[in-house]
Amino acid sequence: MKHLLRVLTVSTFMVVGTSAFGQIDILAGMGFSFGTAAKAIGLQFRGDVDITEEWGGSLNIITYFSGDLKYWEINFDGRYVLYENDPWTIYPLAGLNISSVGVKGLSGLGILGVNGVSSTKIGLNIGGGARYAIAPNISLYGEMKYIISGFDQLVISAGGLYHF
User: Half-sphere exposure of 144 toward its Cβ, with a 13 Å CA cutoff?
Assistant: First the structure.
């Protein structure tokens, strides 16, 4: 289900961007994130679309490694470029967040058919970030955003992107 949602969203960005604005830039990559509520490092998979020189969007999925907790989030963010001077791009961002926290296999309840409990919340993202082009088709990124939801947390992310 997660994979299908990711493919559909990236496909939608590509179709809408191509038909509405002509040439768009598509980027994909991965990185690491730290969430203050998850209190753990997570692996981030990310797809970005630069629709115009100023406007863009991204879809990213983060899975945190937090022991017995199963913590993941999906983010749909829009961004506006404030500053661009090769190799730097700096932008604020805002968007939508879906977070889920669960406890894996509660001890003693397995005989009753309960494998764990989870809760999912929808929230808002607000933050900013930067990209640094290290080659014509490769950029490094860093972002910091605050998630306002039932699972409030600050998320700091860094990684790499490939420009298609």
Answer: 2
